[in-house]
Specification:
Distance between the termini: 24 Å
CATH architecture of the largest domain: Sandwich
Low-confidence stretches: 262-268
Number of helices: 10
Radius of gyration: 20 Å
Number of domains: 2
Structural class: alpha+beta
Helix content: 40-55%
Length: 268
């Protein structure tokens, strides 16, 4: 269930925002939306000056700063903050943005965000389910808009297909991979992140976790065998890394899927 994999922490709307934000995010993610006005925005030393209807993310890693642009008295601001394993899945799938993005003209994103904020104020289970559904729908809309504006270089798509659809090596030789595309490892890492918004090693880890979830649910293989299939020589390291990315150990994840009726093999 998605509401077991995502926790929505808070949300807000300020019609005339003038606040200043400068911080590292620790363990949570946000989507910010400006409907009108202007903002100066920084990720570490990367600077954006945005006006009008824009979205921008904040996430663990960069030092993010934003405040009103000098030519504006304020801006109309909405935001939502959340955390959980589902975010990593969104990032792997390319749904979570990693840089500012203009809102598509003609779409009433105010109404979308206001409905989202209304649902998270509810105290029942259904409000949270609806909020997660609306948030994922918003991220899908934004990802589709990005895809329409950007065509991935062929080598990027080849690497994505290798890790997600082929017979992936979950412990890839980055030196060999870089040489096959006539670039250095540092260039491979930089250009992959620029094109996808995700570090290549982080993407490989997310593919590992996705494959681990499938093996845990659809097979009765022991943990040691699953770890070996995923390129781990140490089952304890596999369990710890799975826990770090998913929030529970592989054993607990498998048991939880069994209890919710999701397994696809006969349990002993």
């Amino acid at each position: 269930m998605k509401d077991a994999e995502l926790q929505i922490l808070t949300g807000s709307m300020v019609l005339q925002a003038t606040h200043k934000v400068a911080k590292h995010l620790d363990g949570y993610y946000t989507i910010q939306f400006m409907a009108t006005g202007g903002v100066e925005l920084f990720y570490d030393d990367q600077h954006y000056s945005i006006e009008g209807a824009w979205f921008w993310p904040a996430y663990p890693g960069p030092y993010i700063r934003f405040h009103r642009a000098p030519s504006y008295a304020s801006w109309e601001h909405r935001h939502i903050a959340f955390r959980g394993p589902l975010v990593q899945q969104w990032m792997t799938e390319g749904l979570f943005p990693t840089s500012p993005q203009p809102a598509e003209p003609g779409k009433d994103y105010r109404a979308v965000f206001d409905r989202l904020l209304a649902e998270i104020k509810r105290t029942d289970h259904w409000g949270m389910r609806r909020a997660i559904h609306l948030l994922e729908g918003l991220l899908i809309d934004l990802a589709e808009e990005r895809a329409q504006c950007m065509v991935q270089p062929p080598w990027i798509q080849e690497i994505l297909d290798l890790f997600t659809h082929g017979d992936p090596d979950f412990a890839p030789d980055y030196e060999c991979l870089a040489q096959s595309y006539n670039m250095s490892v540092s260039s491979l890492r930089r250009r992959f992140r620029q094109a996808t918004g995700t570090a290549i090693h982080a993407y490989v880890l997310q593919c590992r976790v996705a494959r681990a979830k499938t093996l845990l649910i659809e097979t009765n293989l022991p943990m040691k065998r699953i770890a070996q299939q995923l390129g781990y020589s140490d089952v304890y390291y596999f369990s710890r890394q799975f826990h770090d990315l998913v929030g529970v150990t592989p054993t607990i994840y498998r048991e939880s899927q069994h209890l919710t009726g999701n397994p696809r093999f006969p349990w002993p």
